[in-house]
Write a structure and sequence with these properties.
With about 300 residues, the chain is of the alpha+beta class. It contains eight helices and twelve strands. The strands form three sheets. The chain has a seven-stranded mixed beta sheet with strand order 3-4-2-5-8-12-11, sandwiched between helices. A hairpin with a 2-residue loop joins strand 9 and strand 10. The longest helix has about 30 residues.
Length: about 300
Amino acid sequence: MSAEQRAAARHHALGVFLGVAVMMTRLRTGEGPPTVKGSLAMASEKPTGEAPADSRPGGLVYLDILGTRNLWRSGNEAAVSKAYETVRSLVTEALTGTQSHVTGNIRSDSVILAFDDAAEAVGFGERLFLGAFLRASKASRLWLRGVVVPCVGSSLSFADRTQLTGDWDEVSVTTYSDELLGAVFAEAGIKGPRLLVHESVQELTTAAVRRQHKEFFFHPLRRLACSPYPSDDWADLLYLAPWPFEEAAINARGKAVRDRIKWAAANGTSPGISAELEQLAYLASVWAETRDIMFSQLNAAARSG
């Protein structure tokens, strides 16, 4: 396939994905909850945009493990194997307590899971990414990058496998589903260990994932001003935001972010360290905006009290 053909295929796949997203959005009833771009919403607001559970679309979580390619190239196969084991452990922990029906698989350096409840998909992603962050140490760190996109329930077929035509019956051809193909392309456009949520999923889950602080709500789904996005249809899930909202907890989480940056810099001769520092620069930017949002909310609550 030529470069032009590959580019055309990518554009077609993204077009299909956006079409699926529009279809999923139309399945909801009413208008969505308050925009995620704002910083505050009064707790007296009534949740809107909630579709009946039996008609609500599911959520597809696709994520990639960062840095394993550099480890493999450096000959550190043991570290790669450890990373894969850690991911399996983190996924198991993050799935604990999930009420949704879940299907999918873990493939060496990627995870693909479909939930029949989009809010459960977002909650799983938050637990998984925060779990990976908290497990980091000076000796070992695992960073994830992923997306949550809409899907029809949890029973989707991730890929169709057929045989190559002609005399090559032992050669299979695997074709990804539209949902998965769109997720893969979107994830490739993310910078930093972030979890992005498509707008059609945001509109269905905002009321479920928001957190109340006094008379205000904190919305962890935000489109940030200083972070790049694949397109205008995405927002960050602010998984680093501590709960409950307390100044001490916010400051402690900020120290944890700084510690991880220092740990990466201290291993300056390790393979892939410059790539890790680049990824952490984006994480630091996300955290800076997260911190500003949280302190803005704390200050607003103090003034109103």
